[in-house]
């Protein structure tokens, strides 16, 4: 049995997608000969909380915690709403106030690589003592926040341990990196730290093929793609929505605003009153003001339901009962590597997916491979309109469904088996 020390910022009761990847690995590791030990902050500042995730932690897993000091706590004294949005990743380029610009500048240039960097030194000291007193065969760090990787790098340097660096998202090429108002010195330091981590780790794991290609330009360290996935759950009892529901699960950020879709829906509503009466747009999660304004501009606000953040179990039910599932990624070259975790839960729900994103997105390959829906670029308004009308016609006949295939390899159990193999071979 290999003992793996997993260093993560996000851990239950944190909500959202950041916590799920390693919570699920921990859940299944023992089936594949890995004994997990989790290290997480004692007093974190999580933007989202979902107590339901705590029930998935195996009862006798060793969980070690140590305090963290976070600047977001103090920033809230000046602007609580903006701080919470920034901490959640909602960074608006439109109408940014002087305070918001200042906060972004401070965040980007004084806290490198991120606002949790103050946890690195005390964690290295604490874990050095812990490792001396406990069996640890492999250290695993998972980011973002990428400062967690600096803990792993330092532990490897001081204790000569095997170390796997897991990147749930890219580092310097992630879409919001350019919004941090970095000066030249700070931008260079990010690049240097990224290269140091990639070159120092024994193995790097990433969640998308594009990130692997980007990192291969920086390091010769072995890189493995292990995507996110879905849990095989007991059958969910649900009834399909009677409305022609198009549901988006998760945050819809300011730059993730598919106006091409709103335009197409507006056109169809204008041309077909029955379609307008049947249409229901459902949003579960934070939705930026820009998105809401766009929906109003295209006269769709009366067809919208904003549910806010819902628990994971509620999100799963919503996915199963929706007529169509909407997946949206920012239209940018930097987001081609982003494969949202919800895509895999969408696959498990087996409802047709309408996805929008940049050309050459890794999302498109998975949707085509699994025959789970259709992918469109932001310039495909004619094709998108045809697909929406085709789906609506099938819905009216009670025949809107898909026959997806090959999704088993994205189950959490199979993905954990792959990760366990890396841990044993490192």
UniProtKB/TrEMBL annotation:
Keywords: Transferase. GO terms for molecular function: transferase activity. It comes from the Bacteria. SUPFAM superfamilies: UDP-Glycosyltransferase/glycogen phosphorylase. This is Glycosyl transferase family 1.
């Amino acid at each position: 049995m290999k003992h793996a020390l997993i260093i993560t910022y996000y851990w239950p009761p944190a909500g959202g997608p950041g916590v799920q990847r390693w919570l699920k690995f921990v859940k299944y590791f023992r089936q594949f000969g890995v004994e997990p030990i989790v290290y997480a902050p004692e007093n974190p500042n999580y933007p989202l909380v979902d107590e339901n995730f705590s029930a998935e932690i195996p009862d006798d897993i060793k969980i070690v915690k140590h305090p963290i000091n976070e600047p977001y706590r103090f920033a809230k004294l000046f602007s609580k709403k903006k701080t919470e949005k920034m901490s959640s990743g909602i960074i608006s380029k439109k109408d940014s106030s002087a305070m918001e610009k200042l906060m972004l500048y401070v965040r980007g240039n004084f806290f490198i690589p991120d606002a949790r960097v103050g946890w690195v030194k005390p964690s290295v000291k604490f874990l050095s003592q812990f490792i001396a007193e406990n069996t640890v065969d492999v250290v695993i760090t998972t980011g973002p926040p990428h400062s967690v990787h600096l803990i792993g790098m330092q532990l490897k340097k001081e204790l000569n341990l095997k170390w796997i660096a897991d990147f749930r998202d890219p580092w310097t090429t992630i879409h919001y990196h350019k919004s941090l108002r970095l000066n030249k010195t700070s931008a260079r330091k990010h690049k240097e730290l990224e290269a140091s981590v990639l070159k120092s780790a024994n193995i790097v794991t990433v969640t998308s093929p594009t990130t692997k290609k980007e990192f291969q330009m920086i390091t010769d360290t072995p890189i493995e793609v292990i995507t996110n996935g879905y849990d095989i759950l007991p059958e969910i009892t649900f009834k399909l929505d009677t409305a022609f529901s198009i549901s988006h699960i998760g945050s819809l950020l300011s730059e993730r605003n598919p106006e091409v879709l709103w335009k197409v829906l507006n056109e169809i509503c204008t041309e077909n009153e029955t379609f307008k009466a049947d249409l229901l747009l459902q949003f579960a999660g934070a939705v930026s003001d820009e998105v809401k304004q766009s929906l109003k501009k295209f006269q769709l606000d009366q067809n919208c339901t904003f549910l806010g953040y819902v628990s994971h179990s509620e999100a799963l039910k919503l996915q199963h009962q929706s007529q169509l599932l909407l997946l949206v990624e920012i239209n940018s070259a930097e987001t081609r590597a982003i494969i949202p975790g919800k895509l895999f839960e969408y696959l498990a729900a087996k409802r047709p997916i309408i996805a929008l994103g940049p050309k050459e997105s890794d999302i498109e390959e998975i949707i085509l491979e699994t025959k789970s829906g259709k992918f469109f670029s932001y310039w495909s308004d004619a094709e998108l309109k045809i697909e929406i009308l085709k789906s609506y016609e099938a819905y009216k006949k009670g025949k809107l469904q898909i026959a997806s295939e090959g999704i088993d390899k994205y189950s959490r159990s199979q993905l954990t088996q792959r990760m366990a193999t890396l841990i044993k071979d490192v």
